Amino acid sequence: MVRKLLTKTINMNKYGYTWKQEQQMLCDSFARSLLIEHNIKEVTTQRQAKNGTREFEFPVSARKYWSQGKLHESKTRLRLAIFKTGYVRNQNSCSSNYQLNKQYKQNIRYTLLDGNKLITIKGMMIARERIYSGMARLNYMLEFYKRNYLKRNQKPRK
Predict the structure, then answer these.
(1) Over the chain, what is the mean pLDDT?
(2) Which residue has the higher pLDDT, 153 or 91?
(3) DSSP string spanning 126-144?
(4) How do the domains of the chain map onto residue ranges?
(5) Dihedral of the CA atoms 98, 74, 36, 156 (nearest 10)?
(6) What is the pLDDT of residue 96?
(7) The predicted structure's pLDDT at residue 140
(8) Is this structure's pTM higher than 0.85?
(9) How far apart are CA 43 and CA 97, in angstroms?
(10) What pLDDT score does 41 carry?
(11) Tell me, what's the pLDDT at 19?
(12) Is 115 helix (H, G, I), strand (E, B) or coil?
């Protein structure tokens, strides 16, 4: 599917679009295909669009809970958002919107002033990979959904 979209975009070059416009059209086309093929709806507000954020609602429940000895699904739908800064986040978790990007360990150093003396603090911290391409973020979001939600919500065939 991505190859077809890329081919269409390359052919549009003759119409005088800039690279940024082509990338935006490619992302918009991919978002439309998400709706058609997977029933994933874009629910981006005007403010989010202005900031370069895109939010999507998926056709699965956001969480499950136990009540009276039975497992129930919540009525709220899963929402994931992609940000211009390179992050992909879950937008409807219980307490905070957590990041879905891959993690890696990173060495850090800070230089501070302690009285009249400079000291250097070394340490290890967890950082997140940023996904700078809009198409890559959309693709990463779709793969996350397929890997974590689609398989567990499919009913076995008889």
Answers:
(1) 84
(2) 91
(3) EEE-----HHHHHHHHHHH
(4) 2-63+74-99+133-153
(5) 110
(6) 74
(7) 93
(8) no
(9) 16
(10) 92
(11) 86
(12) coil
∠ Cα 13 17 19 (to 5°): 85
Burial class (CB in 10 A: 0-12, 13-18, 19+), 26: buried
Single-letter code of the amino acid located at 145 = Y
Q: What's the pLDDT score for residue 55?
A: 94
Q: How far apart are CA 31 and CA 1, in angstroms?
A: 12
The CA distance from 112 to 20, in Å, is 41
- At residue 154, φ and ψ (nearest 5 deg) are -80, 135
Question: What's the whole-number mean pLDDT along residues 112-134?
Answer: 93
- Cβ 85 vs Cβ 73: under 8 Å: no
Q: Cα–Cα distance between 99 and 87 in angstroms, integer?
A: 7
The beta strands (E) that lie in the chain are given as 41-42, 54-61, 64-67, 70-73, 77-82, 88-90, 103-114, 117-128
Q: Output 73-81 pairs: Cβ under 8 A, ≥24 positions apart.
A: 78/145, 78/149, 79/43, 79/55, 80/55, 80/56, 80/141, 80/144, 80/145, 81/48, 81/53, 81/54, 81/55, 81/56
Span 35-55, pLDDT tens digits: 999 999 999 999 999 999 999
Cα(88)–Cα(99) distance, integer angstroms = 6
DSSP state, 157?
P
